[in-house]
Amino acid sequence: MSKKILFVCHGNICRSPMAEFILKKMVRTAGLEEEFEIASAATSDEELGNPVYPLARQELAKHGIGCPGKTARRIVRDDYAYYDMIIGMDAANLEAMRRCFGGDKEKKLSLLLDHTPASDTKHHGRDVVDPWYTRKFNVAWEDIYAGCKAIFEEVNGYGL
After folding, report:
1. Which helix (H) or strand (E) holds 123?
2. Checking CA distances to 137, which of 56, 126, 146, 155 falls within 20 to 30 Å?
3. For residue 73, what are the CA distances in angstroms to 40, 87, 96, 104, 111?
4. What is the C-alpha separation between 60 and 71, in angstroms, rounded?
5. CB burial class (10 A; 0-12, 13-18, 19+) of residue 112?
6. Helix (H) or strand (E) run with residue 159 in it
């Protein structure tokens, strides 16, 4: 049985697809592709059908990660029943997810950086700032990588 993880951000063209493909690479590198289903989605419909933003694609490519064919989609109510973990990038995403899903009775919703260890004071307990506005895709990469690494370790008990 696979672990189903959905990453969510506002438009699904920067942060959440970066997280999707970073975690997919971690899983592939560990030879665990059969044990995971990883996807990403948006809380808004502003970017529906659009590909991953060019600067986000460039940042992924710097780290040997591609994201071919990925286009933005919006979360739907049925995602809550389907996915085991639904992980937002910031507090606004989390609130929008709660509205879409009618709450979080099964405790599936979380913020990406809440998965990092409390001792990681650079990352733990804060939002992944949207690089669409900051233009700091390298900073987003660092945050998202730290969160994905923590999730991978949490779910598998592995160190990377």
Report:
1. none
2. 155
3. 8, 15, 15, 21, 19
4. 15
5. buried
6. none
The neighbouring-strand residues paired with 38 are 5
Whether the Cβ atoms of residue 46 and residue 2 lie closer than 8 Å to each other: no
Name the residue type at position 134: T
Return per-residue pLDDT of the chain as tens, 160 residues. Answer: 689 999 999 999 999 999 999 999 999 999 999 999 999 999 999 999 999 999 999 999 999 999 999 999 999 999 999 999 999 999 999 999 999 999 999 999 999 999 999 998 888 989 999 999 999 999 999 999 999 999 999 998 754 4
| Residues with a known catalytic role | 9, 15, 130
Residue 83: what residue type?
Y
